[in-house]
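Dock phenylalanine; give full complex structure.
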Amino acid sequence: MSLQQFIEQLDELAQSARQSFMGAGDSEELESARVEYLGAKNGRLKTVQKQLGSIERDDKPLAGKKLNEVKQEIQSSFDEASERLVSGPARTERDLRIDATLPGPSQNIGRLHPITQTIDELRDIMGRLGFSPAEGPEIEDDWHNFKALNIPDIHPARDPLDNFYLATAKNTAPALGDNPLLMRTQTSTVQIRVMEKRQPPIRIISLGRVYRPDTADATHFPMFHQMEGLMVDRGVNLSDLKTVIKLFATSYLGDEVPVRVRPSFFPFTEPSVEADYYWNGKWVEFGGAGVVDPNVLAAVGYDPDEVSGFAFGLGVERLCMIRYQITDIRYLYTNDVRFLRQF
Ligand code: PHE
């Protein structure tokens, strides 16, 4: 083949490759055009390249140079075409007259539910304090919801009127010592689940739903969320608990907030406290807390003489409602967009 013919072939190839690439309507078409022209095995460029062998020896350097040029040319046509597919066709005169920074009609975009937003924020704050999230099931058994938490068999907290028990096979009331299933009434269940599996040091939070058969009113709802915190290590005590609660309150409310604890009672903590913080001119109840009862540590196989811990359980709805001045918990669960849109 003469040099002249070789060069002509290459020029034609470059031209028709460019036409194919630019004419491709989507990335699939472009890809098959690429394979046709640039394919490593049977691409058309390869086919022409093979003819290089039949060129006169003296013409070979020139032919080779031309081949490389055309190769590059075809490659850049391809790049240009794929760029165009990504960024869309060139802007027209009319497009250029549109000011995309002007506000258009307002759009209704969805957003996270205020409780979800609150949960995310609580998880972040506690994460910065070194507490990592843990989870447990919402359907629990008597052991994790009561027994391991030092709530004895005959304790009134087990009353069927205060719990959503799941129906048994025969639908009979559970007998003493059974391990019936129920919707968990507190996230303290997760304390047990974590301690059963892991050894101290432990520093976890658990954020999730709990269920109690309360009639819905402004401050009650049969389902709500709690944030449980648990820290177990050597020598953990009540002042560690107060410190963490104070750091948490300051972080969440964004201000130096006074925190106080009042004596209280929970079967799984000793001593037990009720924690309050001072916000907008009054003391607001935070939730329950205390030093983990040695019986609880023993129930999960820890040695209460070696390790100690604190735990707390805060109501997420209450934290959210106070922050945003929501006056009725039912607003959170009626899914009225006029309410939800405000968050
Ligand atoms: N579980 C308790 C409740 O639901 C709160 C609590 C958690 C109290 C941890 C003490 C320690 O009321």
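Observed: The pocket of phenylalanine is lined by residues 186, 188, 266, 269, 287-290, 311-313 (CB under 6 Å).
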